[in-house]
Design a protein that fits this description.
Radius of gyration: 21 Å
CATH architecture of the largest domain: 3-Layer(aba) Sandwich
Shape: elongated
Number of strands: 12
Number of domains: 2
CATH superfamily of the largest domain: SPOUT methyltransferase, trefoil knot domain
CATH topology of the largest domain: Alpha/beta knot
Strand order of the largest sheet: 8-7-6-11-9-12-10
């Protein structure tokens, strides 16, 4: 059951400190690192915190949305701060229309061995530093059967506010970890029994349509950022290179879209 609502009428109230400067990325990075928190926004994402591994520290609610969001509030055991729209906008730094924000403890990070244990398909991302693309990748990975996500050291923060929002809460439930040693960490996955598939538009790569898997074969699907794609070093660690056949002069797809197509194909192979 949610805690008693606490009305806040002054934007300088210290209880609002975790929610300040949301539109200033570099400052937010420092605030969140110092406080060990991240921000979740919107009723669906905040509700998804319930049952996740993350603990809600406090919630900031727009008083105009109080009654319609009661179901969300009833599922959260944390202080609920209620403020007017202008107060919230003064704190956040921009017009806010999603109704609810939550400050959430990051908690300890997971290790690669933890997240891949018992997983048949893992998505591995190299240098994916666009927060929205990263969030979309998590959303598609969760929807299409991946059991975990691994990130190279140069990937963006999956718990950045935009990533969490675009993932539709998937980042709160799909376990992830960073591979500290890149791209050597891909060899570690091979040692754990994964076949490393690198997704690339290279015409010399095998067609995804022709891909086959042995029964029970574990797969690590490696994807790179749009534009540069996977580095030669990462490609060199792959067991197989695979491509999505395309027409109309198109030579590449958005990384989250490409990953979704590949994951759908992998899931289909396993169901055959």
């Amino acid at each position: 059951m949610a805690q008693e609502l606490q009305v806040v009428s002054d934007a300088s109230d210290p209880r609002l400190a975790p929610f300040r400067h949301l539109n200033e990325p570099s400052l937010r990075d420092r605030i969140e690192a110092a406080e060990g928190i991240f921000i979740a926004e919107g009723p669906g994402v905040v509700a998804d915190l319930v049952g996740s591994r993350f603990r809600v520290r406090s919630v900031l609610l727009d008083s105009r949305r109080r009654h319609e969001l009661q179901d969300v509030l009833d599922r959260i055991d944390a202080p609920i701060l209620v403020a007017s729209g202008p107060v919230i906008e003064g704190v956040a730094g921009f017009p806010f229309h999603r109704g609810v924000l939550a400050a959430v403890d990051r908690g300890p990070g997971l290790e690669p061995d933890q997240v891949v244990a018992g997983v048949s398909t893992v998505v591995v991302a190299e240098a994916l530093n666009d927060h929205e693309n990263l969030g979309a990748l998590f959303r598609n990975a969760r929807a299409l059967g991946a059991g975990a996500v691994l990130l190279c050291p140069r990937c963006a923060d999956p718990l950045y506010r935009r990533s969490v929002r675009v993932s539709m809460g998937a980042v709160l439930h799909l376990p992830y970890a960073r591979l500290a040693h890149w791209p050597a960490g891909l060899g570690r996955l091979r040692g754990d029994g994964f076949t490393v598939l690198a997704l690339t538009p290279d015409p010399a790569a095998g067609s995804l349509e022709a891909l086959s898997l042995a029964p029970g074969e574990r797969v690590a699907l490696v994807v790179g950022a749009e534009g540069p794609g996977l580095t030669p070093a990462a490609l060199g660690q792959a067991d197989r290179l695979v491509r999505i056949p395309m027409s109309g002069g198109t030579d590449s797809l958005n990384v989250s879209t490409a990953a979704a197509i590949a994951l759908y194909r992998l899931d289909g192979i396993r169901r055959e």
